[in-house]
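== Polypeptide entry ==
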Amino acid sequence: MSTTVDEDELKGIWRAYRIDGDQKARDRLILTYSPLVKYVAGRLSVGLPSHVEEGDLVSYGLLGLINAIERFEIDREIKFETYAISRIKGAIIDELRSMDWVPRSVRSRAREIERTIGELENKLKRAPTDEEICTHIGITQEEFNANLAAIHRSSVAALDELWTIASSGGDTVALIDTIEDPLAEDPSSAFQSVETREALAEAIRRLPERERLVIALYYYEELTLREIGEILGVTESRVSQLHTKAVLRLKVRLNATLDRSVA
């Protein structure tokens, strides 16, 4: 957020917009919070095909920011930034999905790997190794790595995949935002699902150590894949593979948990 506006002035701008409907105040809020759009677009642009320009993501995200400003209730015990980031992510992801730029073959292989992980975990009662996944599918390690790279490029949402929380009246929140951060303020009970949060936390705990570390460094410490590679002593492409495998494992476990809760 811009540092040119102090807290008291910002509260006055919010009141002018929400209470008096001052459109100049609305425009000021858009300008003040616009760095959030750049931040989210930059995070989501990692690994996207070259024809998807970050400037386009910013344009999509700006619509999400405007929607957040128009719908935000200033009396709620939640930081606007927390609310807006979810709206911005949602607007960008919705637009990318509408473009349907992910090849059908990549979607199919991602589903196949997810099914394989689920079947092997049920059978082995642990996280399957790369070799076990490859053997089950009938592909080589090189083909598996190539598939992970393709899936990573198509998985714009990753842990930012939006989930609808029933108790929020139809609002959507980023799945990663439902994980409790003990160092952060509680944003709002309206944006938390205890069941989902606990399921995700348990799924992360069950990840292989390196995949768990990649998730923590990428989503909590907000490091780039290159920076994580330097810490782990591996290439950026290897970090990408670890991230993609972690996300696929988490999706399998969360889907299984949610299926059981619905049954």
Observations:
- Strands lie at 162-164, 172-174.
- Confidence is low (pLDDT under 50) at residues 161-192.
- The domain at 7-100 is CATH 1.10.1740.10 (Rna Polymerase Sigma Factor; Chain: A).
- The first helix runs from residue 7 to 18.
